[in-house]
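USER:
Before I trust my own judgement here, I would like a peer's view. Write it directly below this note and I will take it from there.

ASSISTANT:
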Amino acid sequence: MKPSLFFSRRQILKSSAAAASVAALAPHFALADGHMGPLDPDNMTIAFGHVGPKTDEGWTYTHHLGRQAVEKKYPNAKYLEVESIPFSAKGSRTFRQFAAQKADMAFITSDYGDLSNEIINANPNIAFHECAANDTGPNKRAYYVKHWDPSFLIGMAAGLLTKSNKLGYVGSYPTPAVQSSINSFHLGARSVKPAIETKAVYINSWFDPQGASQAGRALVGADCDFLFGIMDEAAYLQVAEEAGIWAAMWNTDIRKYGPKSYVSSVMLNWDDYYVSNVDKRVAGTWTGGELDLLSMGAGVDRDAWGQNVPAEIAAQVDEVRKKMLGGWTPFKGPMTDNEGNQKLAKGETLGEDVLYGWPWLLEGVTASS
């Protein structure tokens, strides 16, 4: 499955030109149907390649916890783990090194596009997973989370908590994946207060405490009294705490940086996904060629509510969460973009290909850099 509208949360940084110079490694044997033979769990090598530091308390940290879950089940395996892999030829060399060190399986925790694909295609004996990728192959699976569901719920909470009816969003880059987060949040807020407006500010970085702080202060200055975002650090939560307004986060529970303001977070947990795929590789039943989307309650969810969230608001949102877990979707028309164009008619449901990478912003959302 290849989603046509999605750009990775970090794909904007990749350098395809640098990847063109990467020398292909000699291919190894793989069964024609894409299956790979079973592995000895005491004599296998599992690689993890990360876009950031595993101590970031955000995106990379969640994947590092997943690696630890695999190691707990398979303590005698050999593990390779590389942090802060750049989107350059140096990143390609890291993936080549995984192959040179005879990795049997590799989890690349962000999309590196052509920088990784040359290595993946040249090593059909290695089972690759690439997070947020927009393509797959016989020895490659793509995977991500349905973050739009908990983002909708957090938006509901924002709509019930706001006094100004103005919400702020601290964004990294204006990619369709980030727009999916903004739109889901905005849609949730408007489900309880249709007059709400959401202002997004892009800071062109995934980890920039100074930039996120400046964006947060600008949004507070524009009368936003609830901040949300997709950053890998807690800077705008600290701004919210100082300003006495609400905030919600991404990746992990980092309420310690703003306990009074903290509402919730889009929580990520890759443990079961990583362990189950290593199980398949060990058993010889693993195959590539698919996109795996982890659902709410099984890889992604909202965090426990913050200490100051009123119980009646938490209960109201949680009732909707139960409906969503039962199959109900809030992503239905009519929908209009912020330029006045109708994008979805009444009764139509937005498909996961769009939710995976939303290419337009909803009416009531404004964005700037």
About this structure: The radius of gyration is 21 Å. The chain is about 35% helix and 20% strand. The chain has two domains: 11-145+270-294, 148-260+301-368.
